[in-house]
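ok so I'm stuck.
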Amino acid sequence: MELLREDKIKIEQAIKTVESTTSGEIVPAIFTQSDFYPASHFRLAITIGILIPTLSLLTDWPEGPGSILWLQLPGLVLGYFLAYIPTLKRWFSTKKEIAEEVHQRALQAFFENNLHITKDRTGILIMVSALEHRVEILADKGINDKVEVETWNKILTPFIDQIKNDRLIDGLVDTIVECGKVLTEYFPIKSDDRNELSNKIVTDKS
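replied:
not stuck anymore, here's the structure
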């Protein structure tokens, strides 16, 4: 997912400011989508493949059952490619599929970006999956031992609303700041603290 240069600077500055008060390490990530969701393509293909012949029966065109069957093939193809439209892909994916795929992508990003190897296990990932309008916050063991999961859920709620209102960057910056407040409370910066992880945002292109 492409970001404007000024958006990247805004996000990096927010991380730098937050990490000046805490020993925690925040890594933000924005991905276009967490999975291809092939099942959504097949579901929509079957739906359109059935819908077109059904409508033709109501209009008595074309004549004959054989002709109706020939309408199914273009309907299947059309439905498959319509699922590339993000809104339709969401509609034809189940909530369970989306939740599992987004969580799996977050876990993958967590380990790919070395959040599990900080000195005090205080790495935290804020991951946005744009197509699904989903966000996950994954914290390492050092944080989870002290901070309740519900704390992150409360922070995520307004962020998700901002994403739906096309305010993703502002929402991400606000979320970084709110996570920073929690980290500063439980993990204030130490005299020997050093920046262990990059402040740059992780994207599909990075």
